[in-house]
Each structure stands twice: as structure tokens, then as C-alpha cells.
Automatic annotation (TrEMBL):
CDD domains per UniProt: cupin_pirin_C, cupin_pirin_N
Domain Pirin C-terminal: residue ranges: 202-311
Organism of origin: Nocardioides phosphati
Name of the protein in question: Pirin family protein
Family designation: Belongs to the pirin family.
Length: 316
């Protein structure tokens, strides 16, 4: 799992240990992601299936794309499609993905890069593997997260952030056993590069066998821990957690994740995505690629798309 790696974690800024009065977050729920297919047929795990929206807000859904090693001719993407009312965050861990939208945004992401697209009032976009990767095959692994927008921002002008792997804030634990990548938001005053409309934090952490992560977390945020690969425990009571599972955490000042001493040889460490945000607490009306506040607004989105008000697919 390339993402962003560091040979010597001792050179990184350290995460401060919890203070004497800090309260750990307990585990409210553990779910196992069902598998499915997205776009033109690439495999995904639906990370948030079975979790009440009250525990997810401001997040809507998250798919783990892959991990899959494609044979030549097998790599797949998505065709052109619309969005309105939220943001898509595509974090590429292994492999290469190309993005284009009808507002001129886009680019290629690989090994720790992130595409952060604010659909706002309406956008058309496409995500595909490059032609050379389709011909050669190769490893494909990433995450796509949908983040809701508050009512005041749902019809904002669409925009696009291209976050390079080298911009991600890298931290470590006091014993240098964990690599923490802050993609957006902040951890203990250390900010990631992603600019967000809904206050939130997104982290990818890699824990060496037996390593423990005590991560400071805003008391105003919810907290979700999803396992990309490996196995370990979450919470001070050591709730077991393995690949494809999500832990929903309760209130507190920090969260705890620990890797098991023994990991699979294919995945020598525990990798987790940690998310949290300030709940928007607004009504959600969601149908397909549109996330609004009322059913009437969703129907208007469909009408606007069908009448070409989102714009048109660029030539070529």
C-alpha cells in the first residue's frame, strides 16, 4: 500500500499523548461492509451500510474501491454522470485514476493523491483508468467519500481541489509506530491541505504490528474508523476490528486504535481511514446522484439535468 510512506517516522512531528482529564471515545457499533460493484463494474465495499445517518452526518457514504489486481483489459471506471448538492472525495492509494468535469476541473491521481470535487449547483464528471493502464492491467485501490453540503452551500458554484500526496500533513505517535496522514481538517493543531465546507477531519493511518494510536479528536465531531486492511482493536475496551469493518465511536476527546501483533503476510500492517465531522443536522433528500434537503429539490435537480442546465459533456 504505497499512498504516502516515510522510511524514518522519527523525523516526523509527534502527536501529543492524551491529557490527564481527556476522555476516550467508546465504541457504539461495529458494522461489516457488504460488497458490490460501481460504475462500469469495479468492485467496492460499502463502508457505511447499516449505520444510522445520525452517526454519519455530515458524511453520506464511503466506498472502498478494490483492492483488486486487474489483468490486461480489465480496469474499469465510471461513465459521464451528474451530481448536485454535495462533495465527492476520491483518495487514491494504489493505481491511477483520471478525472474530468465539464467545468474544466480534473487531472490524474495516484499513490496518495486526492481529488476533492464540490458538485454544488450541478456538475458532470467522469472517472476512468488511463488507457495505458487498461492495456497493461495493474493494482487498483482507493476510497471515495461523499460529504454533504449545508443548505446554504448546496447551489454554490462547482469547484475542484487537486491535493497532491506531497501536500498531506504527516505525523507519528510518540513511539514512531504509526504513520498518520492528515488529508483534511486537523489533528492536534496539525492541519491537512483539504479545504472543507462542512467542518471535518479525514485521516489515513498505518499502524505497525502491535502499535497503538491515541488520536486527539474534536469533541464537536462524530468519529468513524474504517479498516482498509489488517486487523486490530478499537476503543479502550479493545473491540476487535478487521478489514471491511467500520466502528462508530461515541463522545470524547480522543480515540484509540491498536494493531494486532500478528498480521497477514499480504497486509503486514493495519491501515484505517478515520473520519469525523460537525453534524449539519438538516433534512436529507437523496436520490441517485443528487443530495438535497427536500424531494421537490431533488426532482428539480433531475429536471435541470435532463434539460441541460448542468452544462454539456466536453468534446473529446
Amino acid at each position: 500500500m504505497p499512498a504516502v510512506t516515510v522510511d524514518d517516522l522519527t523525523v516526523l512531528d509527534r502527536i501529543a499523548a492524551p491529557g490527564l482529564g481527556d476522555q476516550p471515545r467508546g465504541v457504539l457499533q461495529v458494522t461489516t461492509a457488504p460488497t458490490g460493484y460501481e460504475g462500469e463494474g469495479f468492485p467496492v465495499r460499502r463502508a457505511f451500510a447499516g449505520i444510522d445517518h445520525r452517526h454519519l452526518d455530515p458524511f453520506l457514504m464511503m466506498d472502498q474501491m478494490g483492492e483488486v489486481d486487474y489483468a490486461p483489459g480489465e480496469p474499469k471506471g465510471t461513465p459521464w454522470h451528474p451530481h448536485r448538492g454535495f462533495e465527492t472525495v476520491t483518495y487514491m492509494i494504489d493505481g491511477v485514476f483520471e478525472h474530468r468535469d465539464n467545468h474544466g476541473g480534473g487531472g490524474t491521481i495516484t499513490n496518495g493523491d486526492t481529488q476533492w470535487m464540490t458538485a454544488g449547483a450541478g456538475i458532470l464528471h467522469i472517472e476512468t483508468p488511463p488507457e495505458w493502464l487498461v492495456q497493461s492491467g495493474g493494482l487498483f485501490h482507493g476510497v471515495q467519500l461523499w460529504v454533504n453540503l449545508p443548505k446554504t452551500d448546496k447551489l454554490m458554484q462547482p469547484k475542484y481541489q487537486d491535493i497532491r500526496a506531497g501536500e498531506v500533513k504527516l505525523l507519528s505517535t510518540p513511539d514512531a509506530g504509526v504513520l498518520v496522514r492528515v488529508i483534511a481538517g486537523q489533528v492536534g493543531g496539525n492541519a491537512g491541505p483539504g479545504a472543507t465546507h462542512s467542518p471535518m477531519t479525514m485521516v489515513h493511518a498505518s499502524l505497525e504490528p502491535g502499535a497503538k494510536l491515541e488520536l486527539p479528536w474534536s469533541v464537536d465531531y462524530n468519529a468513524l474508523v474504517y479498516v482498509l486492511n489488517g486487523q486490530g482493536t478499537v476503543g479502550v475496551d479493545g473491540q476487535p476490528l478487521r478489514a471491511g469493518q467500520t466502528a462508530v465511536l461515541g463522545a470524547g476527546d480522543f480515540l484509540t486504535v491498536q494493531a494486532d501483533q500478528r498480521q497477514e503476510s499480504r497486509t503486514p500492517r493495519l491501515d484505517v481511514i478515520i473520519l469525523g465531522g460537525e453534524p449539519i443536522r438538516e433534512q436529507v433528500a437523496w436520490a441517485g446522484p443528487f443530495v438535497m434537503n427536500t424531494k421537490a429539490e431533488v426532482m428539480q435537480a433531475y429536471e435541470d439535468f435532463q434539460k441541460g442546465r448542468f452544462g454539456h459533456i466536453p468534446a473529446g
